[in-house]
Specification:
The complex is a heterodimer of chains A (about 140) and B (about 150). Chain A is α+β, with helices and mostly antiparallel strands and about 140 residues long. Chain A has a domain of about 80 residues: 2-Layer Sandwich (Beta-lactamase Inhibitory Protein, Chain:B, domain 1), CATH 3.30.1450. Chain A contains two helices and five strands. The relative contact order of chain A is 0.16. Chain B has two helices and five strands. Chain B is of the alpha+beta class and about 150 residues long. Helices cover about 20% and strands about 45% of the residues of chain B. Classes of the chains: A alpha+beta (about 140), B alpha+beta (about 150). At the A-B interface, strand 2, strand 4 and strand 5 of A face strand 1 and helix 2 of B.
C-alpha cells in the first residue's frame, strides 16, 4: 500500500476538497435551505416522553402512597376529568416553567398545554402520576 | 312572404355580429384590466385547539394484550372522548395541509371591485383504544377524514 494513498474507510480522516470540481450554486442552496427551514418550522409534534411530576415545582408536593384524591380536590379544585370512578384523574395546566398554573379549560386545547395524569388505588391514595405535554 | 322565427327579436345579422363582438371586447377588457388569482399555500400545522402529542404512529406504540389503560393515559394524557369505565378512550387531532386562496379583481377608476375566498384543507385524525374489563388493551382503531372549510373575505 502506498503511503500517500488515502484510506477510504476511515471516517476521521481529514479530506481536502478539490476546488476546481466544486460548483457552488448559492441560489439553489438558499432555496433548499429556506424550504427545509419552512418545513422544519411547520412540523411541530410534541413527542417528548411524559415528565415525572416530581420534576415540576408546582406538582412537587405529590407523593405516591401518601397523597389522597380528596386532598387534591381540596387544594386544586375539581379535576378536568376522571374515569373509572375516580381511579384515573386528569388536571389541565397552562403556561410554562414558573408561570405554570391550573387551567379550567375543557374540550379543546387552546389554552391548556399540559395534562396531569393521576392514578389512585381503591382507597383514593396516589399510585402513579405523569405530566404530559399536549401542545 | 315572411316567416316568423321564434328567436328573431328584430336584430339584423350585422347587428348581432356587432353585439357579439362588443360582448367579447367587454369580456377581454375586463380580463386584461383586472386579474384572477389562484394561490395554493402548502402547510403542515395543527390548528388552534388541536392536540400535538399524537402522530399517525401513535396507534402502534401500545401492545395489544400487554398495555393497560393506565399505560395509555400516563403516556398520552387526558383523552378527548372516553367511556366512564375507561373501556374506550379516543384521542383526536387535526393537521392543516393546504390553504387555497382564489379570487378576482377589476380596477374601476380609483377603486376596484373583486372578491377573494380562502379554502383550508385539513385532515382530522382519531385513535380509539378499546380495553377489556381487566383494563388490558384489546384493539386500536385509527381513522382520518378530510376536512374543508371555505371562507369568503
Amino acid at each position: 500500500m502506498k503511503a500517500s494513498e488515502p484510506s477510504a474507510a476511515d471516517p476521521f480522516e481529514c479530506r481536502e476538497g478539490n476546488p476546481t470540481k466544486s460548483k457552488a450554486r448559492p441560489g439553489r442552496e438558499f432555496l433548499l435551505a429556506a424550504l427545509l427551514l419552512v418545513l422544519a418550522g411547520c412540523t411541530t409534534y410534541r413527542n417528548e416522553s411524559p415528565q415525572l411530576t416530581a420534576s415540576v415545582p408546582l406538582l412537587a408536593s405529590l407523593q405516591c402512597g401518601k397523597t389522597t384524591r380528596q386532598e387534591l380536590v381540596n387544594d386544586w379544585g375539581v379535576p378536568a376529568a376522571s374515569l373509572k370512578g375516580g381511579r384515573i384523574v386528569f388536571y389541565r395546566l397552562e403556561g410554562n416553567g414558573q408561570r405554570l398554573r391550573f387551567s379550567e379549560e375543557a374540550g379543546t386545547w387552546k389554552e391548556s398545554r399540559h395534562s396531569l395524569v393521576l392514578i389512585f388505588d381503591a382507597n383514593g391514595v396516589l399510585e402513579k402520576s405523569s405530566f404530559v405535554r399536549i401542545q | 312572404m315572411s316567416h316568423y322565427h321564434p328567436i328573431n327579436l328584430g336584430w339584423s345579422v350585422q347587428g348581432l355580429r356587432w353585439l357579439g363582438l362588443l360582448t367579447q371586447l367587454v369580456g377581454l377588457l375586463a380580463l386584461t384590466s383586472g386579474c384572477v388569482l389562484v394561490v395554493p399555500v402548502p402547510t403542515a400545522y395543527h390548528p388552534p385547539g388541536s392536540r400535538r402529542n399524537l402522530t399517525a404512529d401513535t396507534a402502534g406504540r401500545f401492545a395489544r394484550g400487554g398495555a393497560t389503560v393506565y399505560d395509555v393515559v400516563l403516556a398520552l394524557g387526558e383523552p378527548d372522548e372516553a367511556v366512564a369505565d375507561a373501556s374506550q378512550l379516543t384521542y383526536r387531532w387535526e393537521r392543516v395541509n393546504l390553504h387555497l386562496l382564489w379570487g378576482w379583481a377589476i380596477p374601476l377608476g380609483e377603486t376596484a371591485v373583486g372578491q377573494t375566498w380562502e379554502k383550508t384543507y385539513s385532515r382530522r385524525y382519531a385513535v380509539s383504544f378499546e380495553f377489556d374489563p381487566a383494563g388490558l388493551l384489546q384493539g386500536v382503531k385509527a381513522t382520518n377524514e378530510r376536512n374543508e372549510v371555505t371562507r369568503e373575505q
